[in-house]
Specification:
The chain is built from four helices and five strands. With 149 residues, it is α+β, with helices and mostly antiparallel strands. It starts with a helix and ends in a 5-residue tail after the last helix.
Length: 149
């Protein structure tokens, strides 16, 4: 009689092995996804810094077209050289931008040390003029670290 009662019970739920396999799969996926997500968020904050250099690049091009060289193309050199005033903000947790300035045509952008960025990950744009065409070369630790893709 006892044998019949136990055989009529139905199994319900998951076995311990099934639960352990599921947890292992979730852990593997998380181990792959979390570093990728952190890298993605750093690059997205760094892109704010890159985008902010656009008016300065345009100003340098304008200044070069007026002067024929990059020597007088710095932030604050002349009020009508076309280059915006330098940005120098106190550290701000909401913004990736700490400082942007131009020195003889070279645009330098420095990030705030927030959201995974470090203060030394500068973004430097160096202009080169050839046959009336200005091309830009990006450099700096931020570029070396793969932030400017």
């Amino acid at each position: 009689m006892i044998h019949q009662a136990s055989s009529s019970l139905k199994e319900q739920g998951f076995t311990l092995l099934e639960l352990m396999v599921t947890i292992a799969i979730i852990a593997i996926v998380a181990a792959i996804a979390i570093p990728s997500y952190i890298d993605y968020t750093k690059r997205s904050h760094y892109s704010e810094l890159i985008s902010a250099t656009a008016p300065y690049k345009l100003g340098v091009v304008h200044c070069y077209n007026i002067n024929g060289s990059f020597n007088n193309c710095s932030s604050g050199d002349m009020p009508n050289n076309g280059i915006p005033a330098a940005i120098n903000t106190p550290p701000n947790k909401a913004s990736a931008i700490k400082k942007i300035y131009v020195s003889k045509g070279v645009v330098v952008a420095e990030p705030n040390a927030v959201n995974g960025l470090t203060a030394d990950q500068k973004y430097i744009l160096t202009p080169t003029a050839s046959n009336g065409v200005i091309s830009w070369t990006a450099s700096g630790k931020g570029v070396d670290d793969g932030m400017a893709k």
